[in-house]
Amino acid sequence: MFRIILAALLAAGTASADCAGDAEISAYVDAYLSRTPAKALGADGSLEDALCTQGKLIAALEPEMGPVVGYKVGLTSKPAQEHFGVSEPVMGVLYRDMLLEDGAEVPAGFGTVPLIEADLLLVVGDNGIREATTPDEVVAHLSALRPFIELPDLTFAEGEPVNGITLTAIGVAARLGVVGADIPVEDPAEISQALASMAVTLAAADGTTLTEAPGAAVLGHPANAVLWLMSKGVTLRAGDVVSVGSFGPLLPIAKAGDGATLTYAGLPGDPTVSVRFAD
């Protein structure tokens, strides 16, 4: 279950009129599952209210999406934060059944507003990660990296507000993601250096480059996403996965029949992960 250690904030939000009520949660879940435009949740509330709403939404979605298996960090660049009116990243969760295997074929219309982004999963190796204070120390407590094409869904109906509060309330637009093979962390110092300097390239099926960015594009180092989560009260456990955020802009899905491959040049073996979009 949801393990963000923000009990006081959630309790405060529960008592607020701006933490979504049961009827609002039910309406959003119905829209989410039917892939129809949804009303934004928590538009007039605070971050505390949004976290309260997200907690309720997780409880409602877990029976459909499987249990929470990790966390996702969004808005990890200054331009993205400025665009959405926040001064730091936002957080959501990952559900077991949203994670698909490398090469998966996904409907082009998998969501209301289907998007694609270059991402990466970090797999927590042991509970000692809770004591980490630097990216190098985070990496020393990882068991593996996993290539990850996230397929988020900006579910809002036209005209609904899209900002840090409403994104937090809906769990930062989690819908699907395609996961590649584990990259074991055998030499943490080498992996940490590679994470910052790697070239992350998302290419279309015809080889056209869609986005390209260095590893440092995510908070200066992808492992900083873990440090940020922990600074917000998240207690990580061995086996948890963390989606570090987007290396480059989110893009719309072009059309059925297209696909994309994500490459991490500089990580051991220059690993890749691919997805195909079907009718």
From TrEMBL:
Residues 79-266 form the Fumarylacetoacetase-like C-terminal domain. This is 2-oxo-hept-3-ene-1,7-dioate hydratase. It comes from Salipiger thiooxidans. Keywords: Lyase, Signal. Coiled coil: none annotated. Residues 1-17 form the signal peptide. Gene3D superfamilies: Fumarylacetoacetase-like, C-terminal domain. GO terms for molecular function: 2-oxopent-4-enoate hydratase activity. The keyword Mitochondrion does not apply. GO terms for cellular component: cytoplasm. SUPFAM superfamilies: FAH. It holds the Pfam family FAA_hydrolase.
